[in-house]
Design a protein that fits this description.
Radius of gyration: 21 Å
Distance between the termini: 24 Å
Number of strands: 2
CATH class of one domain: Mainly Alpha
CATH topology of one domain: Serine Threonine Protein Phosphatase 5, Tetratricopeptide repeat
Helix content: 55-70%
Order of helices and strands: HHEEHHHHHHHHHHHHH
Number of helices: 15
Shape: globular
Strand order of the largest sheet: 1-2
Structural class: mainly alpha
Low-confidence stretches: 8-44, 59-86
């Protein structure tokens, strides 16, 4: 239920001898999903582990009582929804407690609690899953102009979750959220224009929406905008701008952006050639569990000394740990 990447394919699908492998692999990076996961044509049930991404934190933390914290806000790469709260690991009692708090606060008029109660109702935290109750609370929050509610409704219509799949309706709700300056919704409006979902395909419009979200710090928007600059879609082709946007997303922990930034550094495309810097970025992505740049790392290892590789690995570990620590603060 998160924003997804804009391109498909396999990274470094073909290799030439030695270092030319990096050149061939540069633009073939794969992102399983961009804006959202692939749309399902049939009506489908919501998966609780996906639904938890739609929880809205307040003040950075969702608190269920005076002591216990259930999740913290994060905004990064493949995690650019309204929150990055990890509710999937909560036990049954914890979810029941959360449901009770959300229910109480929703009835007191708190729109964030309304959204959270909707998510909990879909997931069946305190009872059997109840799509009707979930939709009621999301619409109640949206009637108050609460942007995350618009976003969540867009997600449900996009995926056909609890409602009949309707791309036009999904876009309408995303647009309402985007017009409220809600960056995750802006990314998805851009995605719809980018792919012609429920609207005539328009890369220039996509670029404008991505830019709004990218300037507010949304890593997925930065990645998608970089991709447009790299391919000259909707904007003039500009590899320097592409690299800068990839790098911004990479610093926030976007693994795909780290691979692309590293690949561009490896060949000096849009930036000064820097083999050690390339290794650092791609190794950081591997540490995140994204091994799409593994072939490029092997090619780089033929060009770097053992000492340079070890230093790059250490810097990569520090980078990954630093970003994770920042997210969890």
């Amino acid at each position: 239920m998160r924003q997804v990447s804009r391109k498909g394919g396999n990274f470094a699908s073909g290799l030439l001898r030695g270092f030319l492998a990096i050149v061939l692999g540069l633009f073939a990076i794969s992102q399983a999903a961009r804006g959202q996961a692939k749309a399902e044509s049939e009506r489908s049930a919501c998966v609780p582990s996906d639904l938890t991404a739609l929880i809205v934190p307040e003040g950075g933390v969702v608190r269920v009582d005076e002591v216990r914290e259930f999740g913290k806000h994060g905004s990064s790469a493949d995690k650019s929804l309204s929150s990055d709260a990890d509710f999937s690991s909560m036990d049954a009692r914890g979810k029941e407690e959360a449901y009770k708090v959300f229910s109480k606060e929703a009835r007191q008029g708190n729109p964030a609690a309304m959204v959270n109660l909707a998510v909990a109702s879909f997931a069946g935290w305190n009872t059997r899953p109840n799509a009707g109750a979930a939709l009621y609370w999301l619409h109640t929050a949206s009637d108050r102009g609460f942007a995350p509610a618009f976003y969540d409704l867009g997600i449900l219509y996009f995926k056909g979750c609890g409602v009949r799949q309707d791309l036009a309706e999904a876009l309408r709700f995303f647009r309402l959220g985007a017009d409220s300056a809600y960056a995750p919704a802006q990314v998805n409006v851009g995605y719809f224009y980018d792919h012609g979902l429920g609207v005539v395909q328009d890369h220039a419009a996509a670029a404008r929406w991505y830019l709004l979200a990218a300037e507010s710090g949304e890593a997925q928007a930065q990645y998608n905008l970089a991709d447009l600059y790299l391919h000259g879609e909707g904007v003039s082709k500009d590899e320097q701008k592409a690299f800068r946007w990839y790098e911004k997303a990479a610093f926030q922990g976007h693994s795909g952006a780290r691979i692309m930034a590293g690949s561009m550094l490896a060949v000096g495309r849009g930036t000064t050639k820097d083999l050690a810097g390339a290794y650092l970025w791609i190794y950081a992505a591997v540490l995140q569990g994204d091994d799409r740049g593994a072939a490029t790392l092997r090619a780089l290892e033929l060009q770097l000394t053992g000492a340079a590789i070890q230093e790059a690995k250490e810097r990569g570990r520090l980078l990954v740990n630093g970003v994770e620590a920042a997210k969890n603060r």
